[in-house]
Specification:
With about 230 residues, the protein is α/β, with parallel strands linked by helices. It contains eight helices and twelve strands. It has two domains: about 120 residues, Rossmann fold (3-Layer(aba) Sandwich), CATH 3.40.50.2300; about 100 residues, Arc Repressor Mutant, subunit A (Orthogonal Bundle), CATH 1.10.10. The strands form three sheets. Strands 2-1-3-4-5 form a five-stranded parallel beta sheet, sandwiched between helices. A four-stranded antiparallel beta sheet has the order 6-7-8-9, covered by helices on one side. It is globular, with a radius of gyration of 18 Å.
Length: about 230
Amino acid sequence: MPRVLLIEDDASVRDALALGLRRQGHAVRTAASGEEGLAEAHREPPEIVVLDLMLPGIDGLEVCRRLRADGPTPVIMLTALGDDVDTVLGLKAGADDYVVKPTQSRVLDARIRAVLRRAGGPGPEPVRETLGDLVLDRAALTVTRHGVPLLLAPNDLRLLLELAAAPGRAFSREQLLESVWGLGRQDDIRLVDAGVNRLRAKIEDSPAAPRYVQTVRGFGYRFGPL
């Protein structure tokens, strides 16, 4: 059970995320300010910190710097939609990842587990995942929709598994071209768009208005929110 410290000053957001993460199997402690969060982290070190960028008193950037100065505890920043500059500053301050608010607890759960896997901590990736109408079995490399197996080309299956591993995260076309097709930036980026179109035709009720694989205009694609 991963030990999570959630530092968020908005009580409604804090309570909703904490409840959702507990339902996902995390042991969650909360703090409403930077000072309180640092005190909690020193009192009982967590395995990962979810940290709002905009906090009263000591802001999230300074909290992140102090946490990273104390040790290698992973940090996920919560940022507002469109705050690209603040996101970059958060990553430079030592954050391992970021999630754009508003977000759902299942999205945050997936990002927490991904960061902990990279850090060698707890939170193993579930072999079987239910995402909306889809069930992904990463061990068997199968996908079902409404209980019906889907026949996906190997690269299209890899594309789905790559996107679904981090719901809500935006992947650039270049990142997907490299991670799914094993090609470099100089290769044909249209392979990614074609793969997305084939995947949508298999998994979406309406490929023109996708629920699962969504376009991030001018950048790439993300999985969900559902």
